[in-house]
Here is the input.
Amino acid sequence: MSLTLRPMTESDWSDWITVDEEAFGSPIPPYRAELFRANTEFERSLGAYDGDLLVGVTAVCSFTMTVPGGPIPVGGVTAVGVLPSHRRRGVLTALMTRQLTDLRERGEAVAALYASEAVIYGRFGYGRAADGMVFDVPTHRAAFVPGAPVDPALRLRIVKPAETGETFEKVFDAVLGSRPGLYARTPGRWNSVLTDTEADQGGAGPLRAVVVEDDGGPRGYALFRIKPSWNDAGVPDGEVRLKELFGLDPAACALLWRHVLDRDLVSRVTTGNRPVDDPLTYLLADVRQLHARWMDELWIRLVDVGRALAARRYSAPVDVVFEVEDAVCPWNARRWRLTADSSAARCVPVEESEEPGRAADLTLPVGALGAAYLGGQRLTSLQEAGLVREARAGAVRELSTAMSWEPAPWAGLIF
Ligand SMILES: CC(C)(COP(=O)(O)OP(=O)(O)OC[C@H]1O[C@@H](n2cnc3c(N)ncnc32)[C@H](O)[C@@H]1OP(=O)(O)O)[C@@H](O)C(=O)NCCC(=O)NCCS
Here is the structure.
């Protein structure tokens, strides 16, 4: 196989869809393909060709993502697929390697992705930066703790999702900066949130929405579906499937949760991806009723270690030298010095710092820095797992503390 790589164009679209359909083993309905196309920046796509045959695909979305300290440009890697006839012959490796070089040349210091399988991207230097929580709460056991916030000024309004987009956007834009991992949504991205075909409904009826507001305007919203059912004894056994819930303050969040938990004829609320520190985990009087599990959510890759680490802020002052291992992006594989206080950060190759001969305090793979980048994974945990090595006692803890951040990172929307 002789592989050539090049960006795809509109004329490659049907071949692109074919590769992803074959790779994922499921058809992409035309409306989904249209949504996908609307979110596609063709000049940022990459196709791998075996002769004239398109055998591998990927693309990047230009995101503005919140990281500790504020928003930065991030390359959102998406649509990765290799034709089953060409798998395990290095096509993905070729695509990933070229894509990382392209990202660097473009000046994007950080890449992010959602993985179909957790085993795929670690080898390319991505680290598991955010986890999502999946849970299932029985509504009859969902009382709140005493002292849960209540604001009498708040009221609920049932709305039609398709007619309320501006309100959702207003709320989302107000919370966007509050949690690392959230990324700004384009109109195309909102379309994929609000799409409501039969296939989206999955047997659970149309998308429903409720807004909480006071005299000053909207303070939160929830998007969900309801799957009604009755058990053999005729007892209502419906399910609320929560899609999104965002509130500007604790009382708004609590009221939204109360609303979905208190819907009539419903016996459980299920949700596929919430932040691991979701307020509901503290509001429920009986936390054992959460029936939760977590899974990897966002994976982060530092494309350019120096620029990426200088672009975020730190929880504590830090001055460490670390050796980075990076077989895929050799420009990162060197000794770096990170110095930061609460207002600024600098990360340069140690030979360009004021102490050019300083030895490394610790050694770590680039994926460990990606994992810690959004502040949710502790480098000390990776050290305990034997994946980060310390040369100066206490150095890992210093860097780990400085990189940690509140609240837990979470992107909340697959791209
Ligand atoms: C995942 C996928 C893109 C891999 O493509 P590929 O061209 O076969 O990957 P490569 O040949 O470059 O593999 C590189 C290495 O990763 C390993 N690898 C790749 N995919 C893997 C997987 N799904 N599980 C375990 N290992 C995997 C390969 O074994 C190989 O390891 P080696 O270097 O030790 O031999 C392809 O199998 C695919 O399209 N899968 C279905 C769609 C999908 O899941 N896409 C990802 C969306 S996020």
